[in-house]
Each structure stands twice: as structure tokens, then as C-alpha cells.
Amino acid sequence: MIEAQVDTIVGPTHYYGGLSYGNVASMGSRMQQSNPQLAALQGLNKMKLVHDLGVPQLILPPQMRPDVEMIEELGFHSVEEAYKKAPQLLVQCSSQSAMWTANAATVTPSEDSADGKVHFTPANLVTNFHRSLETARTADVLKQVFSSKRYFVHHDPLPAAQDFADEGAANHTRLNGVHLFVYGKGQTKIYPARQSLLAQEAIKRRHGISKVVFAEQNPKVIDQGVFHNDVIAVGHEDLFFFHEDAYVHTQEVLSKLLKYAPLNLVAVRKKELTVEEAVKSYIFNSQFLTLPDGQHVVICPTEVEKMPRAKAIVETRLPVDRVYYLALNQSMKNGGGPACLRLRVPLTKAELKAVKPSVIFTEGLYRKLKKIIIENYPDSFSPRDLTDTSFRKNCTQAVDKITKALGLV
Ligand code: SUG
């Protein structure tokens, strides 16, 4: 199997709305001016690096924002009225949070599913209103990209109720063929747990996965800003790189995993790196890749490079041949690192051939998308801009152009 990386182009209304309670970067950046053009170029640059390394990179388009249909559903007659009467709702309806593709869906490769097909469950993202707006379009785009019924099965998102709260692959790791699902319970004192066990049990049943371990996230780390498991642990093939405080019963989780398959465990002790430092550096949100020649590399955010204790862990403890540090600060300021920006889809060669060819990264597509972003994206954004009809028109046209360039509708 080859692990395709799926990233979404950041949209032209990328902003710091302070919308995610419990995500300390999002809360801390609230109302700062953003640079959507730079955000989109930083994301595209990561995709180029992945492609240049020889790994298949797929590209999804931004979602159309503001979500005018939702604004009307909420009883406003216009965007201007929403801005005047409920600016926070308008900011939520304009969020480009679909850029964090790790939250798009949970994916099960054909090797691990009962019917031998690749299964997708789009995440319902019910915990945050702005994120719940992504689900329908994400489901639609995934169906267009992975359209072959011979190879791909698309489930509906789980019921849109907190009982089934689901944040997709950010809380799911495939370790040497074993599926680790991490959920939170309502026992946090400050911040909400976003992922429910009920959702993950349903995904296990509907995808027909057999080797599964469920692990409860430590409520104390959720209260320190670990809003998804991918902020405190990451797996790749047989490597499991995690912080010792990540789970309620870490030893039990490890022994359950090891019963299924051998693993290379890299545990980070709190005396080496505190949870606070992990959240600040996003070291566990690094993106691991296996290259066609079998080499292993990791893409870390530059925030790791700037923190000597985090950098030392990356450079001395990880079984990788090379480390790349990438500037992704536009996304990082909202709590999105390299691993948040990508959804992993392990595919066989035949399945990869069945992917919609027009979304696969090529040099030509890269140049085309870069040109659209440079010519059409604003280099600063604040919500007041949404009251300008020509600004909104430019945003709509930019998203349209990208969607068309990717051969999607
Ligand atoms: O859901 N931030 C996202 C970040 C998601 C990161 N993804 C993973 N860890 N996989 C979130 O909290 C902030 C938007 C704002 O404040 O404007 C936001 O939605």
C-alpha cells in the first residue's frame, strides 16, 4: 500500500476567529489579522514538498465562504445584516476550518476492512458550529475524488448529536495494521472533550475493522489544550511516538496494541518535554512519510526547530533519515500543524489509479493553483471585508477557479 496525502487549499477568508474553545492557539490568536494568501501558499508549499519527495499528494478545494445559505437559515437577509447584528456568527459562517483535512473523515484501508474496500466516514464535527458547516461539502468532495464503487465505500456522517461527536482521523492512528481510536469523556474541568467513543465504535462496525484498540484521552491534557489526539501522539507504520501523559491508562493501551503487532515505541517523558511544550511546539503533529526508496522522513513545523528541547527529541529519538522544518505559522496560529493539514489515505496501486486524476498534484497543477492564489487572494483579512460585495465576489471567484482547476464541481 501507498499512503496518499490529501490536503485542502486554504480558502480566501482564512482568519483567527478564536472559535475553538480548548484550542489554545486559536484562543490566543483571536481577532488578529490574517493573511489568507500566505496561508494558502504555505499549505501548497507543503504539498509540493510531499510531491517532490515522491509521495502521492491529492488536493481538495476550499469550501465556499461565507456560507450564505446558513446565514439565511439563521434568519438574516444579508451578510451585511449578519455583520451588524451578530458578527461572531458571521465569522463562524466564514471560517476556512476545512483546511485541516485530518478532521475531514476516518478512513479504513481495504487491507483492514471486512469487504476489502476502502471505507470513508466524514466527521460530523458537531462540537464546534463553525466546523459542523464543513461536513456536507466534505462528504460530497470525497465522493467525487474516490468515486469508484468497486474500490470505495462512503458512509454517511454519524448522527449530528454530541453523543456521536466525531472529529475524524485526528483521533485515529493506524499502527502496523492495528487501529488506535482515542476518545475523550466528559470529565474535563476546563475544556470540552471533542471525540466520543460511541462514534468510534460505530465506525469500527460500519467499516468492518477487526484489530482495534480504544484509548481514553487523559482529561488533564485536554484541559491543557490537547483538543485532538494528534496534538500529543502520532503513529506511522510501526512507529508510535507519544507523550507519557496522553492517556488515562497508557500502559494498558500499549499492552493491548502490542498483543496485535510489534511496535517501535518512542515515549516522551514529561521531564523531557512538558505537555505545555508539546502543545506549543506541536512536535507530535509532525507529518511522517515513507519515500518510494523506503527512506523515512518527517515534516515538523518551524516552531519545533525554535524550541531546543523539542528539536533535540526530533533529531535524536526519531527513527527517520531526514527532518524538514516548514513554516506553516498561518495555520499553526489556529492550532493546525503539518499533520492536521493532511488526511492519510492508504491505497493499493489499483485504488490509486481509480482516484480522480485531476486532483493529483503535478507541477502544472501547482503552477496553476499558485497563480490563482497570487492573483485572487487577499493578503490580509478581517471580518469587516465581508461587507464589501466586490471582496465577496473575488472570494467566490477564487474558490470557483480552484474547484474547476481540480476538475471538481
Ligand atoms: O478544530 N482550529 C481547528 C484546528 C484543527 C486542527 N486539526 C487537528 N488537530 N487535526 C480546530 O480547533 C480555529 C478557527 C478559528 O479560531 O478561527 C479552528 O477551528
List keywords for this structure.
single chain, about 400 residues, L-arginine/glycine Amidinotransferase, Chain A, three-stranded mixed beta sheet, 15 strands, globular, binds N~2~-(3-carboxypropanoyl)-L-arginine
Task: Report what the structure shows.
This protein has 409 residues and is α/β, with parallel strands linked by helices. The longest helix has 17 residues, at 36-52. The chain contains 17 helices and 15 strands. A 3-stranded mixed sheet has the order 2-1-15. It has a 3-stranded mixed sheet with strand order 3-4-5. The protein has a 3-stranded mixed sheet with strand order 6-7-8, sandwiched between helices. The chain has a single domain (2-405), classed as Succinylarginine dihydrolase (L-arginine/glycine Amidinotransferase, Chain A, 5-stranded Propeller), CATH 3.75.10.20. Helix content is 35%, strand content 18%. A hairpin with a 5-residue loop joins strand 12 and strand 13 (296-301). Bound molecules: N~2~-(3-carboxypropanoyl)-L-arginine (SUG). N~2~-(3-carboxypropanoyl)-L-arginine (SUG) binds next to loops.
